[in-house]
Amino acid sequence: MICLTLSSPTLALCLEEIRKNREYIQMAELRVDLLDEEEQKRASLFPSMTDVPVILTLRRKCDGGKCTLSERQRRTLLLDALDGDFAYVDIEEDIKRSEVEQKARERGVKIIRSFHDFTGMPDDIYSRIYKLAERGDVAKAAVTPHSIADLMTLFRIADELRDVPKIIIGMGEWGMPLRILYRKAGSMLTFASSGREVAPGQLTAEKLSVLYRADKVDDKTAIYGIIGNPVLHTSSPEIHNPGFHAINYNAIYLPFLVDSVRHFFSLAEYLKMRGFSVTIPFKT
Fold first, then answer.
1. Contact of 121 with 150, CB cutoff 8 Å
2. Pairing assessment for the beta strands 27-31 and 166-170 based on DSSP bridges
3. Which of 45, 80, 167, 222 has its CA 20 to 30 A from that of 121?
4. What single-letter DSSP state applies at residue 64?
């Protein structure tokens, strides 16, 4: 699924974000921390206003959000919001069993247990994700890779934690291939924006759906790309992906920021890539 992270200050504007992106998405995330104070009190009404499943999130500032309330105030706001028919609620890793979790269970709302690392990746990422899954319905890890080797670690989660329901996000420039090939990491969804980036490296829902057809990637999809450093400025995906689509070829072409060609070849073998273009500084 492609999940649209809503970034507007009012519920009406959030609905407009969904309307403009409806053909590209299958889910939305209501970021209550980005709403105006008065609008936050009406958050419970939102799921009944739209036809897509909605994730309830009230992200603290320390986790990349805007919420500066005390934990008690934040808990009260979440409890009030859970009067609405949300599909999921996001509860951070360090929050112990609480009234929010209890009410979610009573309401039939599935629990996403999440952790965020905006500086790097924990050494014990596999065990962290596994433990999160034991405390909720879905484990979510949003981390910041800094190399192709880090990216390889994230893609391997698909094999290392095959039966764990999970959401895996690679933030920043190094994580872009994972945002597009999220299904190759066993991730149930990828987050997208409507044009206003909420997390580092977030792509628009339109680009994910139309240019990359990310939600259509399957085991038979042929993977191609371009390697370089820098590389994200390239227009190659805008040439090759429409070409693949025009000839009805189940393939995808995307940029890979590379620091080590040797490590890239390991990733290419793991992803069963068919080929790639080469730009600076690797042309020699």
1. yes
2. unpaired
3. 222
4. T
25, 4 contact by CB (below 8 A): yes
Question: In angstroms, rounded to a whole number, what is the distance separating the alpha carbons of residues 153 and 141?
Answer: 13
Spatial CB neighbours of 168, under 8 Å, sequence gap ≥ 6: 129, 140, 141, 154, 157, 178, 182, 185, 186, 187
Q: Which is nearest to 147 in space by CA: 45, 31, 51, 261?
A: 261
- C-alpha 177 chain-centroid distance: 12
* Residue 235, C-beta contacts closer than 8 angstroms, at least 6 positions apart: none
The tens place of each residue's pLDDT in the chain, 284 residues long, gives 999 999 999 999 999 999 999 999 999 999 999 999 999 999 999 999 999 999 999 999 989 999 999 999 999 999 999 999 999 999 999 988 789 999 999 999 999 999 999 999 999 999 999 999 999 999 999 999 999 999 999 999 999 999 999 999 999 999 999 999 999 999 999 999 998 888 888 999 999 999 999 999 999 999 999 999 999 999 999 999 999 999 999 999 999 999 999 999 999 999 999 999 999 999 88
Strands (E), 32-162: 54-57, 88-92, 110-116, 138-143
Answer yes or no: are the C-beta atoms of 27 and 1 closer than 8 Å: yes
The SS3 call for residue 255 is strand
Q: Which of 131, 94, 149, 83 is nearest to 116 (CA)?
A: 94
Paired strand residues for 169:
142
Question: Which string of b and e fits 242-266 if b means at least 16 CB within 10 Å?
Answer: eebbeeeeebbbbbbbbeeeebbee
Give Cα 262 to chain centroid, integer Å. Answer: 27
CB atoms within 10 A of CB 209: 20
Beta carbons of 168 and 141 less than 8 angstroms apart: yes
